Automatic annotation (TrEMBL):
Organism of derivation: Chenopodium quinoa (Quinoa)
Designated name of the protein: DC-UbP/UBTD2 N-terminal domain-containing protein
Residue spans of biased composition, Basic and acidic residues class: 1-17
UniProt cross-references to PANTHER family, sorted A to Z: UBIQUITIN DOMAIN CONTAINING 1 PROTEIN-RELATED
Domain DC-UbP/UBTD2 N-terminal: 17-114
Gene assigned in the entry: LOC110716139
One Pfam family cited in the UniProt record for this chain: UBD
Length: 117
């Protein structure tokens, strides 16, 4: 006789990783908000050229720029498979890999004020 309450652990809500705030990190040198924003824009402009689908890149950008609860909803609705809860490594439903650098998902601890501020 078999157990009637057996369940496959890979199905259900537990299989999806919940997004969390990234761990603090430090850039190699002090960086201004303007420099950080330029790096981010350059990444988002070039990322789709390295593979994957444009709509997934767009969803990841929206998730990174949103509050945590909204980011989770965006990722879930886009069908993004989260490998790392801080969104640095994700996959789409077809298996394409999407890697986001730390400077895209969070701010460095050594962010300095712009001189023009």
């Amino acid at each position: 006789m078999g157990c009637i309450s057996s369940r496959d652990k890979t199905t259900g809500a537990d299989s999806a990783k919940k997004i969390r705030k990234p761990k603090p990190w430090k850039h190699t040198e002090a960086i201004t908000r303007e420099q950080l924003n330029r790096m981010r824009e350059e990444f988002w402009d070039t990322a789709p050229h390295y593979g994957g689908r444009q709509e997934i890149w767009d969803a990841l950008r929206a998730a990174v720029e949103a509050e945590l609860s909204m980011a989770q909803a965006i990722v879930d609705s886009a069908g993004v498979i989260v490998q790392n809860p801080d969104l640095t490594v994700c996959y789409d439903e077809r298996g394409a890999k999407y890697e986001l650098p730390k400077y895209v998902v969070s701010e460095p601890t050594n962010l300095v004020r712009d001189n023009n501020s």
